[in-house]
Amino acid sequence: MWEFCLATKRLNVAKFIYQTLKKETGEFGSVLTCYEEFDNFFIMLACSLLERTRMTNILERCIIKVICNFYKEEFLDKNLHIPTHEKMSLTAFKKALINFDKETDFYIISKNLHLDKTLFLDAFYDFRLSALRDKWNELVMLANDNSDYLIGDEAFFDLLKFLIDNLEIGENEISVFEKENGYTIKLPDRSDMFCESLTNEGLISTLIELSPKKINLYCDREDATANFLSKIFEKRINVCYNKNIEKVDNFGAFK
């Protein structure tokens, strides 16, 4: 058996890693458990030696994802100081920064990540990833140094659109349906992948993270969310008003 222990002081990180591993590794007979001790959350896993490579690949992707999302968001919250804008704009701006040049973030982390028997994730981030934080800090300083310029909506949205336009395309085409309890996202190329009951901010964050080439938005009427998405995604979004979305079946997902 191959055994591994991962520890972190961050509860949200521990939950995400545990739930991801539980979902992705259960099919090949792995053993997974977690517990809290001395203000640390420990995730213990084990698998056969034959499955070690497969397990470490999943684990590496999961670790890289939490650093590029949870740790980077925490870094931005602590260091980013830009003029106050309304909630949707700030959500979109921070999410765009989190996803900007993610490929280089992935490379820096993977180059320094070596899985043996134990990984204290917070210590790995603090002591092995200074180059990553320096890279993030350059982006933050650029925004902070131009904070006076970003007070105006036009300049702010110009920068936001630049960031979004330069994100790597993650999906070819997706559809968004407005429901009574929020928004539902459908990915036609991956029938098992969808999000439901998203708030306005949740929808914006998810769309920026997915970075689709084309968005089909089906909603009852023109509103602030539709206008905001049209503004930041421009030609990449097709907004269809006054549609009975229960009859929309572009991809065989809804009828």
List key phrases describing it.
255 residues; 5-stranded mixed beta sheet; 4-stranded mixed beta sheet; 9 helices; 9 strands; 22% strand
In short:
With 255 residues, this protein is α/β, with parallel strands linked by helices.
Describe the fold and architecture:
The protein has helices at residues 11-25, 52-79, 87-99, 102-112, 121-128, 130-145, 153-165, 200-210, 224-233, and strands at residues 2-8, 31-37, 40-47, 118-120, 171-179, 182-186, 194-198, 212-219, 237-241. With 255 residues, it is an alpha/beta fold. Helix 1 (11-25) runs antiparallel to helix 2 (52-79). The relative contact order is 0.11.
Low-confidence stretches: 244-255
Radius of gyration: 20 Å
Helix content: 40-55%
Principal-axes geometry comes out as globular
Strand share of the residues? 15-25%
Distance between the termini: 48 Å
Instruction: Tell me the number of strands.
Output: 9
Q: If you average the pLDDT, what whole number results?
A: 89
Largest sheet descriptor: 5 strands, mixed
Q: Strands of the biggest beta sheet: in what spatial order?
A: 7-6-5-8-9
Q: What's the helix-strand series?
A: EHEEHHHEHHHEEEHEHE
Structural class: alpha/beta
Count helical runs.
9
